Amino acid sequence: MKKLLAATGNEHKICEFRTILEPFGVEFLTPADVGGILEPEESGSTFEENAIIKALSAATASGMDAFADDSGLEIDALDGAPGIFSSRYADSDSARIERVLRELRDVDNRRARFVCVVALASPAGSHETARGTVEGVIIDAPRGDGGFGYDPIFVPDGYNATFAELPAAVKDSISHRANALKAARRILESWS
Which of 26, 30, 32, 33 would you call most buried, defined as having the most Cβ atoms within 10 angstroms of its Cβ? Predict the structure, then answer.
């Protein structure tokens, strides 16, 4: 089984990584498994740049192949905001959701997408990225108890339920992270 360091402390993401990639022979180690690693500043201007920064930093610090993602919500009516600043749009998930709903209060166009870019990096500095998206709409009020982040206000195309209402198995099969991880799996196979 191929071992990769998942360059994140976000347990939700690690759980999704494991669920989607372990059936394909990938074992994830967490930063805690290797004695901890410092998280670099996300100074990039794109999801790709930030994912590469995190993956390269983890690979260099650990001496093993590493995997990182950068993801967020892009809303058409907000010119793509919150975008790469999705996790920094406010101090908590509920405050971020409140801000988005406030900014969309009198807006008809509620089209949005979740974007995820995963980066694989080696300690020698080589790296590749894969991108995944899922299109949908932002609703007027949060619904559901599952998921995290903006999941309670995002309804993916083809569904009537938010990501927070969908069963985890369904979300894990259609999400932006699932789509990016499926593409990353092909990269992993070429690295083996």
Answer: 26
pTM over 0.85: yes
All structural domains of the chain with their residue ranges: 2-191
Tell me how far apart the alpha carbons of residues 34 and 129 are, in angstroms, rounded to a whole number. 23
140 is catalytic: no
C-alpha closest to that of 66 among 28, 35, 32:
28
Which residues, at least 6 apart from 79, have a Cβ–Cβ distance to it below 8 Å? none
Q: In CATH, which of 3.40.50.2000, 3.40.190.10, 3.40.30.10, 3.90.950.10 is domain 2-191?
A: 3.90.950.10
69, 70, 79, 172: the active-site residue: 70
DSSP SS3 for 8: coil
Estimate to the nearest angstrom the gap between the alpha carbon of 43 and the chain centroid.
17
